[in-house]
Design brief:
It is built from 15 helices and 22 strands. It is α/β, with parallel strands linked by helices and 486 residues long. α2 (50-68) crosses α8, α5 runs parallel beside α6 (164-176) and α10 (274-286) packs across α11 (303-318). The radius of gyration is 23 Å and the shape is globular. It starts with a helix and ends with a strand.
Length: 486
């Protein structure tokens, strides 16, 4: 392991963060955090239990009144300082992300920049939590509408973006005046703990942000949601887990935001600029090594450009360098764990068994760690499992089509609806296709759409609510209506 990684790890807290203090878990439980590049342990961190969950909620509840009464400008200044600290420490945070997640350094640096932007954006939104005043239609009284912080929020984040998925929730919650308990993914708790220390340094008061790594995720999150002080849950992860959390949240009618799974189609129309489409496909597929809910999962390419697109795409994918994510010059790091690696191989084997042609990649390399090579499959059958299941890895299945209506129908033939991509030289046609696609976001001649200033989220089984934009802060508020006369 490079010395610089060892130096970064030496500075990372390994205890729970509750009420502004670092503490061991109540029962002494721990988690071994593995390096996906070597499958060897990086650090051992405390693993929260039920008593720790209760303590974290209590700390958040105790801090709530003071934080919600804190001037919006003060909350804004603290979040802005958090942005500045993250930006100053980009390299250290990127190395930490690469070490525990496996992603290549360029992806990790991009994640830190993206994650920091949520603190900057919501530092600006903190002073814009506006209400409204109007005269009732009868003319008899005034209608005053104001937004108030919803209260203690439980945030549950995934392993694929350990920094960005935390800041995308913490930023708006703190901007709105809420306090939070963050339960990071078991595979990647180190970044969340580093962020807790950073937020404390930025001036976040004790108890406003609490962080609970836990390998007993279901038990701990269940206890958090059952606590009478909790009023909000925000989850990013699989649809299966999201559905379970919604059932749990329903018992207490908790406000719920769910950013769940995807099955993103990538449509290349006959008039598309193939070179631009391939460039967009590389970003849409390989950002974060394919381990992203926004990753293009199904490529529908018009038969007139399919041969050229497939050749160019496979050539570009085949040139990517595979290796430890924290090594400079590596394009694609390891997948997060062995289960992820095996799932990807199973999906590829299924597609090949159904007649798909492997243009590049397709087999697990003989390397230590959880690697999978960038892979392109052509002529993938509609029945292949990867056309219906998130691949969450560096594999691109290509399907050829002749009629646009058939491609749109195929793109919509899924229970998911997070994001879609469309490439065409005709903007009007592109807008019509974008409107016909059943999803919450569309990249029209763009391979990436995520932006802290834009509302991120999906439809159908891809989730509820929006993160980012002004809408992201409103998710952490309640609307209060006051009728009065003067």
């Amino acid at each position: 392991m490079p010395t610089q990684i060892e130096s970064v790890l030496a500075s990372v807290p390994t205890q729970l963060f509750i009420g502004g203090a670092w503490r061991d878990s109540s029962d002494g439980a721990t988690i071994d955090v593995l390096d996906p590049a070597t499958a060897k342990p990086l650090l051992t961190v405390a693993s929260a239990g039920l008593d720790d969950a209760a303590a974290a909620v209590s700390a958040a509840q105790e801090a709530l009144d003071g934080w919600r009464r804190t001037a919006p400008r003060t909350r804004s200044t603290i979040l802005r300082r958090a942005y500045e600290l993250m930006t100053e420490r980009t390299q250290e945070l990127a190395l930490l992300i690469s070490a525990e997640n496996g992603k290549a350094l360029p992806d990790a640096r991009a994640e830190v920049a993206y994650a920091a932007e949520f603190f900057r954006w919501f530092s600006e939104e903190a002073v814009r939590l506006n209400g409204s005043l109007q005269v009732a239609p009868s003319g008899d009284y005034r209608i005053v509408v104001q937004r108030e912080p919803i209260g203690v929020a439980v945030l549950v984040t995934p392993w694929n973006y350990p920094a960005a998925m935390a800041t995308r929730k913490i930023g708006p919650a703190l901007a709105a005046g809420c306090t939070v308990v963050l339960k990071p993914a078991t595979d990647t708790p180190l970044t969340a703990l580093a962020l807790a220390a950073l937020l404390r340094e930025a001036g976040v008061p004790d108890g406003v942000v609490n962080v609970l790594p836990a390998h007993r995720s279901g038990q701990v999150v269940g206890a958090l949601l059952a606590d009478q002080a909790v009023r909000k849950v925000s989850f990013t992860g699989s649809t299966e887990v999201g559905i379970k959390l919604l059932h749990t949240a329903a018992n207490r009618v908790l406000s719920s935001s769910m950013e769940l799974g995807g099955n993103a189609p990538f449509l290349v129309l006959e008039d598309a600029d193939v070179e631009q489409a391939v460039a967009g496909a590389m970003v849409a597929k390989m950002r974060n090594g394919g381990e992203a809910c926004t990753a293009a999962n199904r490529f529908y390419v018009h038969e007139s450009v399919a041969a050229e697109f497939s050749h160019r795409f496979a050539t570009a994918m085949g040139k990517l360098r595979l290796g430890p994510g924290y090594d400079e010059g590596v394009d694609v790091g390891a997948l997060v764990n062995q289960a992820a690696q095996e799932k990807v191989q199973d999906l590829v084997d299924d597609a090949v068994d159904r007649g798909a042609e492997v243009l590049t990649g397709g087999t697990i390399p003989e390397l230590d760690g959880f690697y999978y090579p960038p892979t392109v499959l052509d002529n993938v059958a509609a029945e292949a499992e990867m056309m219906h299941d998130e691949i969450f890895g560096p594999v691109a299945p290509i399907v050829r089509f002749t009629e646009l209506d058939e491609a749109v129908a195929a793109a919509n033939r899924t229970d998911y609806g997070l994001i879609s991509y469309v490439y065409t030289a005709d903007l009007a046609k592109g807008m019509r296709v974008a409107e016909a696609l059943e999803c919450g976001m569309v990249g029209l001649n763009r391979g990436v759409v995520s932006d802290p200033s834009a509302p991120f989220g999906g439809v159908k089984l891809s989730g509820l609510g929006r993160e980012g934009g002004h809408e992201g802060m409103l998710e952490y508020t309640e609307t209060k209506y006051i009728a009065t006369t003067w």
